[in-house]
């Protein structure tokens, strides 16, 4: 039987707690602990489990890795954390999945340098669905460069800015940001749609966010994929494309061809 991957999670806010729900109930992983800035006044274990929630003010990363070793660290905290655990994961070869969306170029360069000694993935958008949508849209753009493209994003009433994901889609497809339409209504968690207008047909690629647990599904995918990678710095695209490439090669094997081909 394959050994479970021992995982530590840093960050236990809106996203981190949902990620903990997913990782703690996935049989491929053993979520060993959850670290946050401070543990005062909060439950000491993740609800329904005996996974400890540890305040880093009383137990810094070096002590944590020493007392309860992990194979991988998942970061849903804040940009500064990477400097707190970086050298420890480098020294110990711990896999890093960082979901932090607001790294500076300096932070990203540091993360890339960690890739020299371990496996690192940084993904400012870690949902599997959105990343798949982006790859699929990129492919369709290549196949049909003549199609008109519009991007539609819908979010809850109080979201002030244009969705970063919609801007990333526009950038990836090399279309002007003006092609993004934003609708703000009710409590929509997140809807992204890329509409390809062909002369005689329309293709719509749509992603709907339902719950923050989707971040956990993305982190779980990244953990399983990175476990089979060499040391290096990866993006979510890299992992998806690697998987697609090997699937395509598998389908193209000679024994899959039809008679007479
Ligand atoms: N890539 C993606 O798709 C994606 C999706 C969602 C969120 N995110 C990212 O995830 C991060 C958290 O988002 P959120 O909405 O969950 O924020 P949040 O609700 O404010 O929670 C932040 C959590 O991180 C902890 N934290 C902050 N700085 C820390 C440090 N230096 N060391 C240890 N723990 C620290 C906080 O600890 P305390 O509880 O003790 O204050 C808190 O538990 C953000 O950077 C966000 O950009 C990424």
Description:
This protein folds into 2 domains: 5-126 and 213-246, Rossmann fold, CATH 3.40.50; 128-209, 2-Layer Sandwich (Dihydrodipicolinate Reductase, domain 2), CATH 3.30.360. The chain has 8 helices and 11 strands. Helix 3 packs parallel to helix 4. Strand 1, helix 1 and strand 2 form a beta-alpha-beta unit. It is 37% helix and 23% strand. It is an alpha/beta fold and 261 residues long. NADP nicotinamide-adenine-dinucleotide phosphate (NAP) binds next to helix 1 and strand 2.
Write out the CATH superfamily name of the largest domain: NAD(P)-binding Rossmann-like Domain
How many beta-strand elements?
11
Q: Which residues sit in consecutive blocks of at least 5 with pLDDT less than 50?
A: none
Specify the CATH class of the largest domain.
Alpha Beta
Question: Oligomeric form of this entry?
Answer: single chain
CATH topology of the largest domain: Rossmann fold
Structural class: alpha/beta
The mean pLDDT is 93
- Main sheet? 7 strands, parallel
Compressed to H and E, one letter per element, the order equals EHEEHEHEHEHEHEEEHEH
Side-by-side strand order of the widest sheet: 3-2-1-4-5-6-11
For the terminal residues, how far apart are their CA atoms? Answer: 41 Å
Strand and helix map with partners:
Layout: E1 5-10, H1 14-24, E2 29-36, E3 53-55, H2 61-67, E4 72-75, H3 81-92, E5 95-98, H4 105-114, E6 119-122, H5 128-143, E7 148-155, H6 164-173, E8 180-184, E9 190-197, E10 202-209, H7 213-226, E11 232-234, H8 236-251
Parallel strand pairs: 1-2, 1-4, 2-3, 4-5, 5-6, 6-11, 7-8
Antiparallel strand pairs: 7-9, 9-10
Helix pairs in contact: 1-7, 3-4, 5-6
This protein binds NADP nicotinamide-adenine-dinucleotide phosphate.
NADP nicotinamide-adenine-dinucleotide phosphate binds near residues 11, 13, 16, 124 and 125.
């Amino acid at each position: 039987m394959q050994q479970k991957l021992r995982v530590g999670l840093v960050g236990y806010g809106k996203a981190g707690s949902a990620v903990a729900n997913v990782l703690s109930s996935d049989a491929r992983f053993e979520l060993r602990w959850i670290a946050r800035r401070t543990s005062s006044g909060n439950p000491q274990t993740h609800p329904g489990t005996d996974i400890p929630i540890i305040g880093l003010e009383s137990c810094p990363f070096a002590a944590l890795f020493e007392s309860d070793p992990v194979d991988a660290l998942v970061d849903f905290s804040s940009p500064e954390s990477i400097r707190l655990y970086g050298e420890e994961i480098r020294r110990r070869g711990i896999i890093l999945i960082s979901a932090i969306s607001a790294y500076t170029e300096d932070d990203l360069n540091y993360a890339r340098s960690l890739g020299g000694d371990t496996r690192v993935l940084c993904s400012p958008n870690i949902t599997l669905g959105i990343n798949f949508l982006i790859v699929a849209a990129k492919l369709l753009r290549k196949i049909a460069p003549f199609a008109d493209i519009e991007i539609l994003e819908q979010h809850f009433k109080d979201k002030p800015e244009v969705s970063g994901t919609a801007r990333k889609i526009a950038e990836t497809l090399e279309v002007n940001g003006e092609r993004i339409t934003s609708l703000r209504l009710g409590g929509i968690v997140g809807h992204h749609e890329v509409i390809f207008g062909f002369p005689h047909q329309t293709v719509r690629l749509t992603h709907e966010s339902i719950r923050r647990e989707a971040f956990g599904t993305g982190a779980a995918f990244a953990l399983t994929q990175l476990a089979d990678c060499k040391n290096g710095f990866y993006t979510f695209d890299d992992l998806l494309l690697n998987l697609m490439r090997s699937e395509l090669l598998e389908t193209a094997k000679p024994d899959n061809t039809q008679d007479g081909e």
